[in-house]
Amino acid sequence: MPIFKPKHLNLILQGKKTQTRRISRYRLKIGKAYAVRSKMLEPAQARIVITRAWRQQLRDLTPEDVRKEGFNSFTEFRQAWREIYGGWNPDQIVTAYEFRLLTRKQKHRSRRNRPSRLGVQATFLNTLTNT
Question: What is the pTM of this model?
Answer without folding.
Answer: 0.77
